[in-house]
Amino acid sequence: MPTSKKIVLPQMGCGTWAWGNRLLWGYDESMDAQLQEVFNLCVSNGVTLFDTGDSYGTGKLNGQSEKLLGKFDGEYTGANKDNICLATKLAAYPWRLSRKSMVKAAQASIERMGRVDLAQMHWSTANYFPWQEEQLLDGLGDLYERGLVKGIGLSNYGTKRLKKIHAKFSRRSIPIATLQVQYSLLSTYPVTELGIKETCDELGIKLIAYSPLCLGILTGKYTDSQTYPKGLRGLLFKRLVPEAQSLLNCIEAIALYRQKTMAQVGINWCIAKGAIPIPGAKNIQQAQENIAAKDWQLDAGEIAELDRAAAGIDKPMVQNIFQTR
């Protein structure tokens, strides 16, 4: 039977995609001490949800994000320790074909992290291999029934698919705790087009917003091609930053009036929309800035201004290729 201790979900979490990813985020093991400081600072300030994935970490560093979280969690002794929620996403790799493979994947994550509180299906295979998804979802349910995790969640699912999966798990009396989607002022599609927030509310599912700053674009730090990051992000910024200029101007104006940073406005907008944003942080400065985005609220007029600016973007952020309808 599942453990009786429930998951505690805070107003905001921390995404750890960058903790081990060299290709996109320039991770180096010399950063580990600083990342542990980030972890400690977040937890002590009530940011107790840490989201990772068993696919995070490039090359030989595969699983590094989970390993770091396990180490940091084990060594933390400060405030809010009992509220820490370690969440991982289990990848629907093409070689994971059975419900047992999902259980095995979770057990590997548990070994790296010490425990997994929230196990999430990283993406749906319904569009290209529905049989596989059925097996993996069965395995996800097994994790909960066997008490290996406190809760289960989904990632990159749309409204239609979510309702079907909810019905599937309901037949086993297994609740879906969370759904995470790519959601920001530059990526409103899951909410405005698919109506995912209303569905989550109806089904009692908490909505998690990943990439709430759209890979850093909404921080306002990338003003022209000279400031763009190298590699894949830079190519994406080349199109998105000029396209988003009117939105960035709106965010900047509100940030100046509120005496906040642009990043804090972008994150707070997600909170105001009823989502739990999980911005990433690679250093103390970023963590402090993220933490200061909570415990206050944009007013209705400011939210409406931001919504209008976001709706005016002709070509917003591309959606995750695995996002279902």
Q: In words, what does this structure look like?
A:
- This is Aldo/keto reductase.
- InterPro entries: Aldo-Keto_reductase, Aldo/ket_reductase_CS, NAD(P)_OxRdtase_dom_sf, NADP_OxRdtase_dom.
- One of its GO terms (molecular function) is oxidoreductase activity.
- One of its GO terms (cellular component) is cytoplasm.
- The chain is of the alpha/beta class and 325 residues long.
- The chain has a single domain, classed as NADP-dependent oxidoreductase domain (TIM Barrel), CATH 3.20.20.100.
- The protein is built from 13 helices and eight strands.
- It has an eight-stranded parallel beta sheet with strand order 1-2-3-4-5-6-7-8.
- α6 (159-170) links the parallel β5 (151-155) and β6.
- α2 (32-44) packs across α3 (64-75).
- The two termini are 32 Å apart.
- The model has no long low-confidence stretch (mean pLDDT 93).
